[in-house]
TrEMBL record:
Residue positions binding L-glutamate: 113, 453, 477-478, 500
Matching Gene3D superfamilies: 1.10.246.130, 3.60.20.40
Source organism: Streptomyces cahuitamycinicus
Catalytic residue list: 411
Record's protein name: Glutathione hydrolase proenzyme
Amino acid sequence: MRRPVARNLTVLAVSAAVVVSVGAAAPPPAAQSPGGGKTPMAVGYGGAVSSVDPDASAAGIEVLRKGGNAVDAAVATAAALGVTEPYSAGIGGGGYFVYYDAKSRTVRTIDGRETAPLTADENLFVENGKPLAFADAVSSGLSVGTPGTPATWRTALDRWGSKRLSSVLKPAERIARDGFTVDETFRSQTASNEARFRYFPDTAQLFLPGGRLPVVGSTFKNPDLARTYAELGRKGVDTLYHGRLGRDVVDTVNKPPVDPGSGWNARPGDLSAKDLAAYRTKVQAPTRTSYRGLGVYSMAPSSSGGTTVAEALNILERTDLSKASKARYLHRFIEASRIAFADRGRWVGDPAFEDVPTKELLSQRFADARECLIKDDAVLTSPVPPGDPRHPERCGTGGTAAPTTYEGDSTTHLTVADKWGNVVAYTLTIEQTGGSGITVPGRGFILNNELTDFSFTPANPAVHDPNLPGPGKRPRSSISPTIVLDRHDKPVVALGSPGGATIITTVLQTLTGFVDRGLPLADAIAAPRASQRNAAQTELEPGLYDSAVRKQLEAIGHSFKVNPEIGAATGVQRLPGGKWLAAAESVRRGGGSAMVVRPVR
């Protein structure tokens, strides 16, 4: 049982409800972002959708208007993102799906993470006794895991949806066939991948039309993906896991179609029809922790998101962040993140292969033992050694420190609510921006490089690394789709973000900004971010790096470096009287797109 904090939890729950009502008084719903026509906030009735893209959000709204529920709309939005955000998500990848059921007032989750081939072992990325360079691994068949996104859609619709897959894929199929307008983000992401896209003729033909970068303002069409979606609608996702589409994926992974003139060594993978047929999503209990009297629910391992966000919140529970100065708030946030990442690296992996102490990582007892490491006038030295959640000792550590391994920062997140009160927070990914860079010929989508989320070799040779590759193993993720409930188990807010390992710190900072600092949801999302992942330096966006608070924090020992952009969050918030507020980025990734079924001023 968590011991109460200084303030009364009943009052805190009421305060949270007050914060919800205050959110409606944030910037006007029609405020436009500088990204060009996107609306980062909307308020209204009938349900809400928030994503990074207006075509994708509109696809979800279309399904809600036709009587679909939040699950139906989430799949429709995700499918549309596979068209308009093909370098971040698609049916060649995977993700994590968190669902709140209004009728039972319960939260359920789907682990749709990609899996390694059944032939994989811990030397998957070792060549001639040495780990491959990341650049050599990422654009190769070796990096491709068995896709989990189509199976996630099937599981969600079968269990909680009200529409057929063929129905909810229609908006995305239409966008792929008729095209969408290229924006600066799409062009710049293409440009940053241009060199490796040219290694693969099918990728270059699709994403470099006429051999050139797509022009901002032009219409981009993907008829191959439109046909693939139509096939998924007719045949179901078994066409991937047991059929023709799956054979095309296997052939592409095992013999990547490389331009012979490029000189690129696209190392072949070892994916088989058996791997596809054996793939299963995992419907599992969420992580849960209590914070300021609210229930915070997220993804359990194989994602480290739920446990790491929860541990950091539990550490922060003992500090009244609402009254702290900005410098003290950020100091405590940074140090809690540092400690939680230390424990994440030591203990979290795929629980089918590793003994992950999930319950203990979520315990307040363990958080209290770790919280005492934080001093207001000094900074912990990174990498911080992990603690032992099974046998917590006050200010104790349970092993040798290890650095946080690299995790690709491209992903996308969507958040949906419907008129019945159901909510979905869904983060999906193909890992790196542009994934493996390998397009399945004639199919219109890029394959993931999720297996590079494994440790290539032990992060610290002195201790067991729970994130080494293995047969059928899921690589550790930082994805953190989160739903927060009040003391009556009704939604307060739901949110998530892309950003690799920065997902965890983005969700944590947005939650504490909203719950503790009293920021309206749109402002909590827009606030400049910091990200500490058990490293020597903390990353700051320019809004913090160029501020006076940086010097205050440096005075007690913090060291910083600039990160131009951290994450790209979206969220929805329940308002009184059946209204919803949808919020997205105002600037990051060119701004996001928040929509509601029936807008109100």
